[in-house]
Amino acid sequence: MKWVLVGVVLVIGVLSAVTPRMSRPTVPLGVSVPSARIGDPVVRTSVRRFMLGCALATLVSFLLVMVLPELLAVTATLAEIGLILVVYVVTRRSIIEAKQRDGWYTDVPVRISGSLSVERKPVAWWPYAVSLLTLAGVAAYGATRYADMPGRVVTHTGADGMPDAWGSKNVWTVFGPVAVGVGLVLVMALCGWAVRRSERPTPDGNRRVAARRGEVTARASERLLAFLTFSLTVGLSALVLMQWHDIVGGPVLAVLALILAVPLVAIAVYAWRILRVDGEQRAALNGSDPSSANQLEPETPDDDRHWVGGIVYNNPDDPRVLVPKRFGVGLTVNYARPGGKAFYWGVLAVTLIAVTLPLVVQ
Amino acid sequence: MEIELNPQSDAPLYQQIRDRIVEAIAAQALKPGQGLPTVRALAGSFGINPNTVAKAYELLKAEGFIVTSRGGTAVADPMAAHGALDENTYLENWRARLFTLIAEARAHAVPAADIEQAVALTLSALGGPHAARPSVVASEGTGA
Questions:
Q1: pTM for this structure?
Q2: CA separation (Å) from B43 to A325, B30, B55, B71?
Q3: 8 Å CB contact between B55 and B14
Q4: A310 — alpha (psi -120 to 50), left (phi > 0) or beta?
Q5: What is the ipTM of this complex?
Q6: pLDDT tens digits for range A1-18
Q7: Which residues, in sequence order, are bridge partners of residue B87?
Q8: How many CB pairs below 8 A link A and B?
Q9: If you measure CA to CA, which chain A residue comes closest to B51?
Q10: Contact (CB<8Å) B4/A203
């Protein structure tokens, strides 16, 4: 259990440290800056300090995991997130101050862009359809074996791959994991649809590279979601089939390891793709790309007032519920919309329950 | 197709949306009968208040550039009636605005040759050939 937490702490630390490079170059640490300022010493120093802070927070959390008793060790991940948030708030402040002090946006032309096109590129639904068909196949197979299954079935498997909880045979205890899989596929398909709909080009100092970044990011995100959906479906199906056939121990552990490792590799490939296109965009904005050198193009406006801490989007005028993230990649919700409020409070409630329930039960 | 608005401009956003759509129609980037996004979708695309887009669409509809039906909003056929304005009123208003625009340039001492060149460049940028109303062709050169 502790080593799983160590892994989680490391993943949180690494993902946080690379987030500034996964974000648009004109929003370092969630602060709007004109493209001519992305190489400013204040920006560079702040980002470096943030990355160093992430490393220190990870180290502290790692030590906490090792020192604390197992039940409290989970709180080390929350401590890590809290520490990284503090580092984030402190380091971004210097960029905000420099921007205001030196009037970085004075006389800088800005534009907002929108699309008059009605048609949108359709979402590739087939990976989700194949995943649903796989689960349907597993459910159909289970239905044929249902009558032969014992009266008590395994409902939980421990970290050693051995069953540690059983329950009476019924539709939920037998087919529950398949139903969870169907829910997962539908949620992931919804995310894929949202990613496709949120695609929006932006001036960002160089329209060509900004549009390319948007296109590459949307395509990579869609592929990642589709791949994660299918690989998790296959992993879950394998676990269910092994459970029905009383296969325990090593094979179960091997599948669990693959369920953890395959998404991590996919996320690493995704991050590499984003970092590569980020490098292209930075090179173009710094003028080192000869095809875009000396271009004078408008910037994305300074919209810091709509972003609380550069993370929470709160714009009552914007009718969208889902908007592209500013710090990192993917989507976030508009807190000013009723759906956005429900999302934030829902996540908060679920987090509090997940953290406090085990302590209360204990 | 993408259009851009300048939030720093003195011109209100709804006016800019109206102008960009008229320019797109003139350049034939938007064709008669072609659908336009819903008010909410276009507002979301810009991240602005839907009322701003609604105001631009109302203006375009009143001027006869777009039509709305149950199926949504679409570019109007230029050979059809200009919405609330009849043909003569539209041309009269257009000539009056053109007169003021040219007068502004002359008041700023812009040479007549430069104005003529700017008009030629604008027509060239909008491309062609365009379908033309007989009345517009017949009245060319009559001045405002």
A1: 0.80
A2: 18, 19, 11, 19
A3: yes
A4: left
A5: 0.79
A6: 677 788 889 989 999 999
A7: none
A8: 74
A9: A317
A10: yes
